[in-house]
Amino acid sequence: MKTYLKNNKKILFCLLIFYLISILAISSFSVFLSSSYGNLVIKQTINYVIGIIILLVFLKIPHEVILKFSFWIYLVNVLALSALLFFAPSINGIKAWFVIPFLGNIQPSEFMKIGIILFSCKIISSSKILGFKNELMLILKLFIVVLIPCILTFLEPDTGAVIIYLVIFVTLLFLSGIRFRWFVFFFIVLGGLLGGILYLFFYQKELFIKIIGSSFFYRLDRLLDWNNSSGMQLENSIIAIASSGLFGHGYKKIPIYYPEGHTDFIFTSFVSSFGLVGAILLFVSITYFDYNIFKYAKRQENAISKYAITSFLVVIIYQQIQNMAMTVGLLPITGITLPFISYGGSSLLSFFIILAIIFSLENKFTKKRKYK
């Protein structure tokens, strides 16, 4: 255990910074929350403690075992997503959480990305890449692995998670080593599909709703209409950030309310409270954290380890960019959390599991290098 701590002390230090940023932002925004939420600082601290325990437990599991059972990890997550549609309560019109007494809400879509990456990396590492037929079979396998959770998550509906799964799919295709012509083909097909969908959306709305349904129509309308800044949540977020100045409005002095300031919009809460100085601290911490994981991925000699760490890193970076950019209107609001900072047990614990797998794979490389 001391070896893990020594080898990963830079990332663990970043985690400490993330924890402090998280509880400061949550506590600062808590003035807008009713007492029914309880003490979110204590709850987030408990989430971190549970996350660290999970991290330590997973570190004791050999990475070979995790990779060996990657299919079953994937399957359990698929079954969990399926069960949501039948047994989960509807919260704000969304069936995305299991409500478990005394434990709170569990969101399976947060853990699904782990199953997709592990199982897909195993498929890539055991596949023959050379040749048209082999490449096509690999693409179809990866597509099916990603398509199933995409459909189930889309039905919840959770558009943000679906986008993450698609980001994982594209990343895995790049890592697989398939020829560039496939990406040209995908671009042409995807362009044609998007063109057809957008044509129906803008010029044949009734036919669009008849074919695809009103639910998808309104979700697409929200995504395409994000840049007009007409929503109260986005407008107030921009006001809170733009007016924060160098040092912010101060702890618990956020000047304006915006929904989900402790979860999806926690970046706004922190910057509004601590200004440009706080934003720089956050950016530096995130960059240093990501850079150290990048170094782990770059020096891996085993293909499956390199694929897994790189895929996990892409997910982390995508969520960081998406979450922060949507709070200032640069990207659509998709309900994606800021890793290790947003309040929420499922998101936080899923990233602790990801970190444990990364540590385990990196430790294998370190040991191998030591005994050379």
Word description of this protein:
The protein is an all-alpha fold. The protein has a domain at 1-60 and 230-372. It is built from 15 helices and 2 strands. It has helices at 2-7, 9-29, 40-59, 63-68, 70-87, 108-125, 132-154, 159-176, 180-203, 205-212, 214-224, 232-242, 266-298, 303-326, 345-370, and strands at 98-100, 104-106. It has a two-stranded antiparallel ribbon with strand order 1-2. A hairpin with a 3-residue loop joins strand 1 (98-100) and strand 2 (104-106). Helix 2 packs antiparallel against helix 13, helix 6 runs parallel beside helix 8 (159-176) and helix 6 (108-125) runs parallel beside helix 15. The longest helix is centred in the last third of the chain and has 33 residues, at 266-298. The two termini are 22 Å apart. The mean pLDDT is 86.
List the helices and strands and how they pair.
Elements: H1 2-7, H2 9-29, H3 40-59, H4 63-68, H5 70-87, E1 98-100, E2 104-106, H6 108-125, H7 132-154, H8 159-176, H9 180-203, H10 205-212, H11 214-224, H12 232-242, H13 266-298, H14 303-326, H15 345-370
Helix pairs in contact: 2-3, 2-13, 3-15, 5-6, 5-7, 6-7, 6-8, 6-14, 6-15, 7-8, 8-14, 9-10, 10-11, 12-13, 13-14, 14-15
